[in-house]
Amino acid sequence: MLKEILTSRQRVINAVEHKAVDRMPIDLGAHTSTGISAFAYYNLREYLGLSIDNIEMIDCVQNLARVDDDIIERFHIDTILLNPAWENPKIWKPFDKYSFKVSPLFNAVLQSDGSYKMELKGETLYMPKGSFFFDGGWPDFYHYETVEQKVDAFARRAEQLYKNTDKYIMLTGFFFGFFDGIDFACDMLTDPEICMEHNEKFLQKQIELFDLINKKMGKYINCIEINCDLGTQHGPMCTPDSYEEVVYPYLKRFCEHVHKTSDVHIFMHSCGSISLLLDYIADAGVNIISPVQISARDMDPEFLKEKFGKKLCFWGGGCDTQSILNNASVEDVLRHTQENINIFKKNSGYVFNQVHNIMADISPEKIVALYDTAYKHSFY
Fold first, then answer.
1. One-character DSSP codes across 255-307
2. Computed over its alpha carbons, how large is the radius of gyration of the chain?
3. Domain range annotation of the chain
4. pTM above 0.85, yes or no
5. What are the tens digits of pLDDT across the range 227-278?
6. 226 SS3 class
7. Which terminal residue of the chain, N or C, has fewer Cβ atoms less than 10 Å from its own Cβ?
């Protein structure tokens, strides 16, 4: 019988660093793009006969659940969400049977048409009737008045998790990859000097922020996240040449500073077709790429693993959530997931997760099949 000989934390560290592992590490919910809708999570817990009384909605825009210890144990998860619990949470009962603990700043108001509207920190968010998440903005639902207060709170949580669990710990939501969407991509072509001036100033702020984080919790976290969507379904938002000129030098300088001053890994979140940019991203010093949108153009698992598998750790890509997890049968989900695992886990350098979050309408049967398959085929 195959046995686990590494701790969860060391297993993920080894995988990221392309070292030998006892089995493929598994993630669910360490990042707000590797998680699960609170609605699907409620249904999953109900299906498994677990308590549904204290489900915490830790992301109140995407409406994602915190993955609890019993689910982490049940599905052999090697990671854990760093974000602290809400202080003095409210209870939100959006419709039907569902009930969630939410941020005390959460103030969604039911409208006459059955939608929800929320205004917070200058942003207006809507959740139309029949939908399961908000759109229109992304305010911070924590109450901290300064960056320092927020870093201190996260640092306390990081120390607690580091000392009391063996899970891999990622700090998300602070870092941006020197690229700011399609309008910025246009500016990169028409006014590259202005974009580079912006990135130079931003780089200094990012370094200062990282230094604060490193001082407060560097010894308790394993990874930081750079949130930087670069791709569409059919290709990058920007040309490779403009990325090399305007973005890559600043990303590289930031990564060099992080690696020089700490032992933490660098995780980049980018949806879409980004294979044309992955050489730059890897050379800049990024360790991990996620969510690995295998349904996008030029993002085939075999191609990615063959061309970039020695340069980057892939975190995601285990199951296509655009067409398979939502539409296929349980049997097809099993087959598809096993095929992707067998490709990605070769020679380490892989952490299992589906492509982005598990949506609200995914049945618990499929979720159980997905993660039981991941564990069954995780051993080498």
1. HHHHHHH---EEEEE--S--GGGHHHHHHHT--EEES--TTSTT--HHHHHHH
2. 20
3. 8-34+74-83+144-376
4. yes
5. 999 999 999 999 999 999 999 999 999 999 999 999 999 999 999 999 999 9
6. strand
7. N
